Amino acid sequence: MSSLGEILNRDFPLLERKRDRLILVVVCLVFSVLFLNIFVPFNINQWIGAKGFAKFIKLSAFGALGAGWLLISQLGLRPLFKIHKFTIKGFLLWFAMETLVLAFLLEYYQGSLSPVSFRFYNDLIFSTLKLALPSIMIPYTLSLLIAGVLYHRDQLKLLQEEVKEDDEQPTLLHFKDERGELRFSIKRSEVLFLESADNYVAVHYLEDGEVRKNLLRNTMKRMETEFEGTTFKRCHRSFIVNISNVKMAQKQGSKYELKLESCDQLIPVSRKFIPDFESILA
Fold it and tell me: Residue 263, CB half-sphere, CA atoms under 13 Å: how many?
């Protein structure tokens, strides 16, 4: 079972693209304006002392302030500090920073209190944070769900394109040894997986419905490089799998395994390579 530290240090692929960050800003803006004007949480109307259209404008300004801050944070500060990718831990820390700064801005915006006064920080902690947290967490969650759907859709589309490109390649897959000499060729669609075997690579393939094996004197690293950009992907230190023949993916404890067509052997997917198989394992 993965430890908490390992989970927190995993890559967090959402919000890497500018498109997803813009979705976050827009969703937060729309949600905040509607949420504040419809529900008027925490008696926020008492802060502004306005009614009618003036009340709508002032409450909407709170939502615009939050969306403006996220725009600066996601599209300004992140590029400035060259934070293009997050780990889960990094994302949680960034989210906490965004929430605290938003609470600070809301508190400063709604009153004339000095940011050096005790009352300012007391209200910041016990009052404004109660408003800032749900105001940012709910639309943030919705935005991440949207970004997650788009991310997996893009990954699946990319995988399908790779399979399509691979189908357009020659039918036979040629296997060369470490000296570059051709040893044997197998129909591309019949190759199941490659397995490390000491100084050799065992090529497992289908022939007349049965799994057979040919040994090739070469290294997994060379084979991985040779098959780069095809449907053959490294999934483990000892395995390269033809993803076009993956029938099922299953989780055993904290480990993932792949089941291939007409093959009883389960192929492990190590943590290092899980991101390359997210469209299959999701």
Answer: 26
**Structure token digits, residue 144:** 């991440």
270 and 239 in one domain? yes
Tokens (6 digits) for 172: 């036979």
Spatial separation of the C-alpha atoms in residues 260 and 270, rounded to whole Å: 17
What is the reported pTM? Answer: 0.56
**pLDDT tens across 11-26, in order?**
898 898 899 999 999 9
CB count in 10 Å sphere of residue 220:
18
Burial 231-247 (b: 16+ CB within 10 A, else e): bbbbbbebbbbbbbbbe
* Inter-axis angle of helices 88-110 and 129-167, nearest 10: 140
200-243 pLDDT, tens per residue? Answer: 999 999 998 899 999 999 999 999 998 888 889 999 999 999 99
- Comparing 36-40, 57-61, 206-210, 218-222, which segment has the lowest mean pLDDT? 36-40
What does the alpha-carbon distance between residue 60 and residue 7 come to, in Å, rounded to a whole number? 38
Number of domains the chain contains:
2
Residues 220 and 109 in one domain: no
Give CA–CA dist 91/77, Å, rounded.
14
CA distances from 63 to 105, 194, 227 (A): 11, 55, 50
Name the residue type at position 100. Answer: L
Backbone angles phi, psi at 199, to 5 degrees: -90, 10
- Which CA distances in Å does 274 have to 8, 146, 205? 15, 21, 24
Domain hosting residue 211, numbered range:
169-281
158 in the same domain as 136: yes
In this structure, what DSSP letter does residue 244 have? G
The residues that bridge with 200 in the sheet, in sequence order, are 197
Mark whether 152 and 54 lie in a shared domain: yes
